[in-house]
What we know:
The chain has 219 residues and is an alpha/beta fold. 24% of the residues lie in helices and 30% in strands. It is built from 6 helices and 17 strands. The strands form 6 sheets. A 5-stranded parallel sheet has the order 6-13-7-8-9. A 3-stranded antiparallel sheet has the order 1-2-3, with no helix packed on it. The chain has a 3-stranded antiparallel sheet with strand order 10-11-12, with no helix packed on it.
Amino acid sequence: MRKDGNEFIIQLDNQFQLTGKKLIIATGLQDTLPNIKGLQEYWGKTVVHCPYCHGYELRNRSLGVIATGPMSLHQAGMIPDWGITTYFSQGQHLPDPEQQLFLEQRGVQLEHSPVIEVLGEGTDISAVKLKDGRLIDVKGLYIGPKTQMASPIPQQLGCEFTQGPMGEIFVTDDFKQTTVAGVFAAGDIVNPMQNATFASASGVLAGVGAHHQLVQELR
């Protein structure tokens, strides 16, 4: 991938080249999960990241939040609206007195012994195993993964980024143009809150922005 004057040139694996005046990057983010046995195999099934995306499917069951950072405490306060909730601090992300009072008011149970394994069968989890040997009944888990760009193209083009809650996202204007002229971005890579509908909406904005620029350049 390179820019030559007002054109973008993309080199494909089969040596074929594509050129264009505008570029929309929609290469997505890569999730990095904590190194917990069994977690990866249930990811996207009964281990998920967002109650607004998956709360309905996991409702009315015992739920848990495995902490990965400060935002996990906020998440733990949300989840009781879908089911009885346990907050697993992993012994690292501990609530301050005000946060603990709020979680108690929301009915959240706190566990500070780290989760070391997720247990279950098929696509359904049944419990988590703690470092102290106890098993805690959990039928759904929420976790905020760390994220990173799935493609090196944005860095190759020199796009600027800002820090989101879970990782870097593009700096864009209202129509999703990046800091590089003619380059637009869409999807979770431009949104601090990752969600399928937000991602698709940003694609509409990026398409509109790119088209408007092309129209204006014909004048």
